[in-house]
Design brief:
Blueprint lengths: L1 H29 L2 H24 L11 E7 L4 H20 L3 E9 L5 E9 L3 H5 L4 E8 L8 E12 L14 E6 L6 H6 L3 E6 L4 E5 L5 H31 L11 E6 L5 E4 L5 E2 L2 H5 L4 H15 L1
Parallel strand pairs: 4-9
Antiparallel strand pairs: 1-3, 1-5, 2-3, 4-5, 6-7, 7-8, 9-10, 10-11
Helix pairs in contact: 1-2
Length: about 300
Amino acid sequence: MREITDLKSQVDGWGKLHSRISDAKELLEMDDDELLEDLGSEIVSLETEVKELEFQTLFSGKHDKSDVIFAIHAGAGGTEAQDWAAMLLRMFSRWMDGRKLKVELMDETPGDVAGIKSVMMSVKGSHAYGRLKSERGVHRLVRISPYDSSSRRHTSFAKVEVWPDIAEDIDIEIKESDLEIQRFKASGAGGQHVQKNETAIRIRHLPTGIVVSCQNQRSLTQNQESAMKALKNQLYAIAEQQQMDEIAQLKGEDVDTAFGSQIRNYVLHPYKMVKDARTGYESTNTGAVLDGDLDGFMEAYLRWLLGEQE
């Protein structure tokens, strides 16, 4: 039923656009100056919608329509790396706000001095996974460090993880004996109730070493349900990746087993450039990119991905 509803929405969208274009053509043929003035803004609106619908035709993955579990982890390097992770969180948050996606914080660990060590969020909205899957991997920053009294250039790394939120649709058995569960007091906002009770949860999956935490809910039960959901999504993603690697090996293709290999470089010194290592797409407007202007990188990745699959 969800698939039917989604397909109907797509067909209706193209149908309405076709009608608006037909109406605009009729107004243009009338050659009325007053009507032509009104037509200008309609043409701009139509161009925007055509580009958006064209962009949606690039989604080829079976989970591209799904919601997302999204995480950022600071790499080695202490405060510098943790500040970079916070910069990425700000960048992605601004992009998500611009796309009107619904974001819910699941877990956040603040940095020792500044920034964050890690953050995990639930992101819901149209083709959330299809858009954000391009960001999965290691992001590298080169800049003059504001935390270095000698103003030296530093290189920092942070890893972005993206999983389709499909836990309710998949069947993965998780043995209770494979789990190590810890309860602790939440460190985020939430008032006295959160601070006095052990409502936060941390689950370690012993066979894989995966650790998930959740502390955004007041209830321990709710946090445990959210953490188990995140774990289930990660285990499914691992199984799916292993299957893809096995198929690639049978086909004689080289397989990169290093999850989260470097995908993008953000250089702020000695020049300004953001460049994707996979697609070659680049931008010299680093300020705009760090303010959430990511659509160009995402579109380039989807087009590159289609080319790789052909």
